[in-house]
Amino acid sequence: MARDPYRLIGRIQQVSHSLRKKSDRLLIDSAGVTTAQAGILAVIADDPGCSQRDIARRLRLGESAVVAAVGRLLSAGLVERRVSDQDSRAVALFLTGRGVETVGRAQETYGVVNGVVLEALGDEGRARFAELLDALDLAVGSLPLPAKGGDSPPDGPGRK
User: Fold this and answer.
1) Would you give the distance in Å from CA 150 to the centre of its chain?
2) What Cα–Cα distance (Å) separates residue 96 from each residue in 11, 43, 93, 117?
3) Which pairs from 21-25 meet CB under 8 Å and 24+ separation?
4) What's this model's pTM, rounded to 2 decimal places?
5) In sequence order, what are the beta bridge partners of 83?
6) Phi/psi class of residue 133: alpha, beta or left (left: φ > 0; alpha: ψ in -120 to 50)?
C-alpha cells in the first residue's frame, strides 16, 4: 500500500532526527563532539587548510553555523587557524593533535552507527537505498528557491 506523500516526508524527517539525536549522544560520549562538529572535523581532516566557506559548501550548512561550530572547536583545542598559503588575507583550518585523536574516535563511532544502518537494510537494500537517496537529493536540489527574503517558512495556518 502506498503511503501518503506528506506522511512519507514527515517519516523521513523523523528517522533523520532520530538518527541525528542518537549519533550526537554516541559521539559526545565517545569523542566529545556532536555530529555537526564531527562532520566539520572530518572535512578538515580530509582537506587540511580548508576555509570555513569550504566546509559550509561541502556539508551544505550555513556559513554562520560553521563559524559558530568552528569557534567551539577552536576553544576546545581541536582546531587551529593559520594564515592561508594561497592568500595571506585568508584563514586556513587545521586539526590539532587532539583534533586528530577526536576524528579517530568519531570514525569508530560512525562505524558502529553505519553498521547498524547497513544491517537493517540488508545486502539487497543497501544499493537500492543509496540510489534512492541520490534520486531524492537531486529532486530536493531541483526545488525552486523562494524569492529574496524568503528564508522564513511560508504563511500557513496560524501564521501571520
Assistant:
1) 23
2) 39, 14, 10, 31
3) 22/113, 23/109, 23/110, 23/113
4) 0.81
5) 91
6) alpha
Say if residues 105 and 30 touch (Cβ distance below 8 Å). yes
Q: Which of 150, 129, 133, 131 is nearest to 141 (CA)?
A: 133
Give whole-number Cα distances, 15 to 22, 59, 63, 113, in Å. 11, 19, 26, 14
Across the chain, which has 160 residues, the per-10-residue mean pLDDT values are 73 93 96 96 97 95 95 97 86 97 97 94 92 93 81 51
Q: Are 114 and 131 in contact (CB under 8 A)?
A: no
Residue pair 40/70 in contact by the 8 Å Cβ criterion: yes
